[in-house]
Structures are given as structure tokens and as C-alpha cells.
Amino acid sequence: EKDKELIRGSWESLGKNKVPHGVVMFSRLFELDPELLTLFHYTTNYGSTQDCLSSPEFLEHVTKVMLVIDAAVSHLDDLPSLEDFLLNLGRKHQAVGVNTQSFAEVGESLLYMLQCSLGQAYTAPLRQAWLNLYSIVVAAMSQGWAK
Ligand code: HEM
């Protein structure tokens, strides 16, 4: 219960517009693994990572990612209800060439974003609470890679 409060409170404190936070998260991700940028086929039209990060298609994906996290946060009491959705989401990512190993970097980028955005409010228990939620989401998405 304490975990849920930490997650809800911190997510809310990021404000209504989550897109800029998502951009921070994905900037970090492409720093950790620049190869992932190439999975967004439209990125070939852009000269630099910066151009890509500000492209409308890319911001749309960031928006979608933030909406999925938002859904997880609002379903903390009922995460199994998201399992089918997350399994299908995993399938789609398998189809576009994402590897389940990349989830480690995605998780690291999520924590990096939270640390940047929350400052002092980013504590060890909060970090652990987010890691727990993230591991549930990853486990559900990973089902999409199973045959
Ligand atoms: C769709 C890549 C992580 C949520 C897509 C697409 C690509 C992609 C190429 C299809 C084109 C597009 O919509 O832009 C990646 C890569 C990731 C990543 C490379 C990191 C390794 C995530 C994460 C989430 C997410 C962590 C949410 C938890 C979505 C959603 C869609 C999508 C909701 C739309 C699926 C649909 O069309 O129904 N992703 N993605 N993605 N992604 Fe990701």
C-alpha cells in the first residue's frame, strides 16, 4: 500500500503533460543504446538524434508510452486486467524488432527520468516501488515474445 502511494504521488507530481518527461526518458535510452533509434523506421528522415526526438511521429510514440505507464499507475489495484493488453503490446514490439533484453535499458531510463523530475523526492523506497511495478509490466509484455 505504501508502494502504491509512492507511485501515485510521484506520477501525479510530474504534472498533467507527461510528454517532456517521456522525452527525457527516451533521450537517456538512446544514449544507453543508440541502435534502438533505428527501430523507429521514420528516424531515417532525420539528421540527428535531436531532430528525431522532436519529430511528431516520435513524440506520438512517447505519448503512447506515457499513456501505458499512466494506465499501469491507475490500475495498481488491478494490474492483471492489463495483462492481455500488455501481452499484445509485447507482440507488436517483437514485430518491430525490439528485443526483451532492451527492457533493462528502458527500466534504467525510466528511473533516470524519475530521478531528474523528482529531485529530492526520488528516494530508495520510491525507486524500489517503481522497479516493482516496472517488472510486472515487463513480465506481462514479455509474454508477447513467447511462442
Ligand atoms: C509502438 C518502438 C518501448 C508503447 C511502437 C512502434 C515502434 C516502437 C517502432 C510502432 C511505431 C510507432 O508507434 O511509433 C519501441 C522501442 C522501445 C519501445 C524501440 C524501447 C525499446 C515502449 C514502451 C511502451 C511502448 C516501454 C509502453 C510501456 C507503445 C505503444 C505503441 C508502440 C502503446 C502503439 C502500439 C499499437 O499500435 O497498438 N513502439 N517501443 N513502447 N509502443 Fe513502443
Largest sheet: none
What is the CATH architecture assignment? Orthogonal Bundle
CATH topology (fold) name: Globin-like
Unreliably modeled segments: none
Number of helices: 7
Superfamily at the CATH H level?
Globins
Instruction: List the ions, cofactors and other small molecules found in this model.
Output: protoporphyrin IX containing FE
Total number of distinct structural domains: 1
- pLDDT average, as an integer? 93
Order of helices and strands: HHHHHHH
What's the gist of this structure?
With 147 residues, the chain is mostly helical. 67% of the residues lie in helices and 0% in strands.
Describe the protein.
The protein is mostly helical. It has a single domain (2-145), classed as Globin-like. The protein has 7 helices and no strands. α1 (2-13) packs across α7. The structure holds protoporphyrin IX containing FE (HEM).
Which key terms come to mind for this protein?
147 residues, mainly alpha, Globin-like, binds protoporphyrin IX containing FE
Show the helix and strand layout.
Layout: H1 2-13, H2 19-32, H3 49-53, H4 56-74, H5 83-95, H6 102-118, H7 124-142
Helix pairs in contact: 1-7, 2-4, 2-6, 5-7, 6-7
The protein binds protoporphyrin IX containing FE (HEM).
Protoporphyrin IX containing FE (HEM) binds at residues 36, 39-40, 57, 61, 64-65, 68, 89, 92-93, 96, 98, 102, 106.
